[in-house]
Amino acid sequence: MRVAVTGTPGTGKTTATDLLASRLDDDDALPDLEVIHLNEVLDREGLYTEIDADRDSKVADLDALADWLDGRDDAVIDSHLAHHFAADRVVVLRCRPDVLEERLRDRGESGAKARENAESEALDVILAEAVEEHGLESVYEIDTTDRDPETVADELAAVVAGDREPSAGTVDFVGYLE
Ligand SMILES: Nc1ncnc2c1ncn2[C@@H]1O[C@H](COP(=O)(O)OP(=O)(O)OP(=O)(O)O)[C@@H](O)[C@H]1O
């Protein structure tokens, strides 16, 4: 089974999937899935087409990443691009835009980049893409705004275990960004 964990940068994907990896190792009731941080693969394998100097980021080569993922079916893949790949379940982490902006600034992102991501979160951009590409029956939302990383990891484990119903559209952040 492949589970994609996606969401706007800053929603807590890497933090939560790192904690999930321990649960997958320790809990025999959970399937034996590998946690793959796609941004690390992109860097290590050079799976990008160019470097966007303005945005200080690499432009992912989605076809090359899909080829690299081929055969790695028993995995949890973590990235804000994860919903662009084949997956049985897609978890979209959410975070209230004002809180997301603060998290990103605290992490050292520029004000402009923090704001741009907060606006994207307010507009449900990644959720809409995930539903468009995978269908409502495969998409789960987890709001990380007031959940600590351990609790988010527990929620991820519940989705992996099949203990959660699909829940796209349960989060609404309209009005949280002036
Ligand atoms: N549940 C949470 N509650 C509060 N802060 C969190 C939570 N999860 C992560 N954070 C913090 O928010 C910031 C972003 O977390 P993280 O890097 O895991 O996000 P991400 O979605 O993986 O971002 P990116 O897509 O850029 O890799 C970090 O500073 C992290 O410590």
Largest sheet: 5 strands, parallel
Topology pattern, helix = H, strand = E: EHEHEEHEEHHHEH
Strand-residue proportion? 15-25%
CATH class: Alpha Beta
Which geometry do the CA atoms define? globular
What is the CATH architecture assignment? 3-Layer(aba) Sandwich
Number of domains: 1
Radius of gyration: 16 Å
Could you state the CATH homologous superfamily? P-loop containing nucleotide triphosphate hydrolases
Assign the structural class, choosing from mainly alpha, mainly beta, alpha/beta, alpha+beta, or little secondary structure: alpha/beta
GO biological process, one term: ribosomal small subunit biogenesis
Binding site for ATP: 10, 12-15, 107
Family: Belongs to the adenylate kinase family. AK6 subfamily.
Region (LID): 106-116
Descriptive account of the structure:
- It is an enzyme of class 2 (transferase).
- One of its GO terms (molecular function) is ATP binding.
- InterPro entries: Adenyl_kinase_AK6, P-loop_NTPase.
- The chain has seven helices and seven strands.
- It has one domain (2-167): Rossmann fold (3-Layer(aba) Sandwich).
- 37% of the residues are buried.
- It has 178 residues and is of the alpha/beta class.
- The protein is globular and about 45 Å long.
- It starts with a strand and ends in a 17-residue tail after the last helix.
- Adenosine-5'-triphosphate binds at residues 7, 9-15, 80, 103, 106-107, 144, 147-149, 152.
- Adenosine-5'-triphosphate binds next to α1, α4 and α7.
